Structures are given as C-alpha cells and as structure tokens.
C-alpha cells in the first residue's frame, strides 16, 4: 500500500506579520474592544475600517504597545508580545503614526528624523569617549539618510524649519517620514489621509505603495473608501469592538452585515454630500 501524497503547503496566503486573538479593553466598565481577532498579512497594505467608536484607534494603541489590553494575545510574527511596552515592540520593527500628529515641535524637521534613527552609537557614553570616530561617522550617515528621506517626502526644503511651524499636511508627511527613518518592518498608520487635501492624499497613497514595494507591512485606519479600494490589498472591519469581517473591499460590499454596520452609512453620506 502506498502512502497518500503529502499535500503541498498553501503559499497563496501570506504569513501574518501581526495578529491579535480575543483582544479586549474596557474603560470604566465599557468595552471599547470586545474580542477583536484578526491577522495582518505580511508585505501587504491592510485597512482597518469601521464606524466611529468601533475601537480602531484603541486596537492600534494596544498593538503598538502604547496601551495595555485586559485580555487576549498579540503576536508580531511568531513572537507573543501581549502588553509589551512600545519600546520593546519597536525593537521588533513595528512603528506607528498618530491621528493627531505628534511632532517634536521644538526641533527642526531634520532633527525630528535624526532622533528616530535606530541603533545610534552615540547613545552610549562609552562610545562617545572611546569610539568617537564611529559616532561621528554614523552621525554623518544618519544625516545623509534623513536628507534622502526628506527629499522623498517633499520636505527637504523645510529641513531647517521648526516642526511646530509646519502645516497640518506637512506634519502628516513628517510623521510618516520619521517612522520610515526608523526602518520599520511593520507600519501602523492612524488615519494618515485625514484633514489633508486631495493632492496630498494621492501623494501619501503613493508613498504607502512605495513602502509596500520595499517589503514593509502596512496597517492603516482609513475612512476614505476610495483610498482603501485603490491601495489596500486586505480589509478588516471592526464594529462594536469586535472583528465583523475581513477580505477585499469589493467582497465586503456584498456582506449584508458589513453594509448595515458601516458601508451603508458611508456610501449614503457620500451620495448626499
């Protein structure tokens, strides 16, 4: 008797770069996140969508380590990182931006990027005194890289301006470029298109696709469904703190539960201005 052939592994579904299972979080007894479970495919752009109050930002805060959860587990790749602080999670290559930009206002645009450069030898006093040439060489390399990033994101001409003097759209670009300076493997973006003009929406969308092309996994909270349909490979829908559905946006438009919870009101609002 011959053994049945071993089926070939399914390589059509990317491995999860980031995942959570049964995440919960309550504030004064009210559950903002109620068992959210989903996986973010590696190397793709994933949108996290849902009605206001669905728990999207709370989930991103938990995933990035800026907030602890009450229950459930989180993994970055194969490593369980549940309730790790943000600096430990960042060492695994997970970076994030915020819905309201958090630039270092007293520093210049260039300095905002330089503080994000990983593994700086100058952070060690021993290196400062015993290996000054290494520190100086790395500082020159970091400046060159930061200037390249600023040029890519259209901020080179503002490099010596104080970050607090930038416009809202420029601050959005600064936050993304600062995260890029940290060499992320996974990038969480909290409404990167909110409050910016259509031309800048197109630019930011292009930058996100460029990051994907370099192998960066992106999870973004986004309400603009035109943007989601254009640049996102995968969509996660949250409602009332739980995962309602996942898939491509085109397929989710056919999901009655998703339409009732979110897409119906978004489409209706866009139709009636």
Task: Give the domain tally.
Answer: 2
Query: Into which percent range does the helicity of residues fall?
Result: 25-40%
Q: Which stretches of 5+ consecutive residues score pLDDT under 50? A: 6-11, 267-273
The CATH architecture of the largest domain can be named as 3-Layer(aba) Sandwich
Q: Name the CATH class of the largest domain.
A: Alpha Beta
* Ends apart, CA distance between termini: 69 Å
Q: What would your notes on this structure say?
A:
The chain has about 270 residues and is an alpha/beta fold. The protein has 2 domains: about 15-105 and about 185-270, Rossmann fold, CATH 3.40.50.300; about 105-165, no CATH class. It contains 10 helices and 10 strands. The chain has helices at about 55-65, 85-90, 110-115, 125-130, 130-150, 170-180, 200-215, 225-230, 250, 255-270; strands at about 15-25, 30-40, 45-50, 70-75, 80, 95, 185-190, 215-220, 235-240, 240-245. The chain has a 6-stranded mixed sheet, sandwiched between helices. Strand 9 and strand 10 form a beta hairpin. The radius of gyration is 21 Å and the shape is globular.
